[in-house]
Amino acid sequence: MLYIVIPVFNRKEYTRECLLSLRAQTNQSFRTIVVDDGSTDGTDQMLAEEFPEVIVVKGDGNLFWTAGVNLGIRRALELGATRVMTLNNDVVTDPRFVEQMLLDAERNPNAVLGALELDAATGEPIYGGETLNFRTNMRRDLLEVLPPEKRTGLHEVTYLPGRGLLIPKAVIDKIGLFDEKRLPHYLADFDYTSVARRNGFPNYLNYNAILSTYPEESGQTLTRKHRSLKGYYQHLFGIRGGGNMVNFTHFALKNCPAPYLPYFLLNGYARRVVGYFLH
């Protein structure tokens, strides 16, 4: 049984739209768990009144993404989950999203699967996976190298984001849950899927499974909209900072091959120091 885990904090309109899209899925062989981490905007009431089928797990307001996801996964495992999917609340699932993910999960039972992402405003593809060369710290964006006719089926990648991430129970049994201690928010998903890959579970971007997302609402984008010294500090050291130096260090130490680590770290630090002002 598939359990979909959605961590939320406020933004109930996004949560409502996401849950309505799940309710419209062509394949309903799943249950949904929402981890409400202390929302103050009426999310709890909305869930109770409009989505009685959803399992709600309460947080204390201090979970952030990683601990919230882990709390939901633990509940899913208690209920007998054989597969878990992490999903952000600011996404809308295509009606055949679950159908396509489960179809390819059956064909590739040991694989970790991610989804093609479209911009909800334009319908244009904005994320189709990437590969990372640890030796050079260079990323290869699949959307830039795959012609439109090849954007179908499964494509192997180095890691996957947590929005629409399908994880077989075998992966959890072998490597455990997300690293909430060292990576409380950003990079926990890339780290987890990288660790899974190194433990024999391939990562595939499933171009047949589609999500619509709101890139302008990401924490990184919002931080850069109004650049300031405070925003720069948050970018480099805040829990929600997209360029968090500590998080990057933990990711590198865990996943980069030792011979490439010095350059990977130095290059990564330099990119984060200047990247706030370049995007």
Helices and strands, with pairings:
Elements: E1 2-8, H1 12-23, E2 30-36, H2 43-50, E3 55-58, H3 64-78, E4 83-86, E5 91-93, H4 97-107, E6 112-119, E7 125-127, E8 130-133, E9 138-141, H5 142-145, E10 154-157, E11 165-168, H6 169-175, H7 188-198, E12 203-213, H8 219-225, H9 229-237, H10 245-255, H11 261-275
Parallel strand pairs: 1-2, 1-4, 2-3, 6-12
Antiparallel strand pairs: 4-11, 5-12, 6-7, 8-9, 10-12
Helix pairs in contact: 10-11
User: H/E element string?
Assistant: EHEHEHEEHEEEEHEEHHEHHHH
The N- and C-terminal alpha carbons lie at a distance of 41 Å
Q: How many helices?
A: 11
CATH fold-level label of the largest domain: Spore Coat Polysaccharide Biosynthesis Protein SpsA, Chain A
CATH class of the largest domain: Alpha Beta
Instruction: State which percent range the strand residues make up.
Output: 15-25%
- Number of beta-strand segments: 12
Tell me the strand order in the biggest sheet: 3-2-1-4-11
- The radius of gyration over CA amounts to 18 Å
Low-pLDDT segments: none
Q: What class, by secondary structure content?
A: alpha/beta
Question: Which percent range fits the helix content?
Answer: 25-40%
- Total domain modules: 2
Shape: globular
Name given to the CATH architecture of the largest domain? Alpha-Beta Complex
The biggest sheet amounts to:
5 strands, mixed
**Overall mean pLDDT:** 93
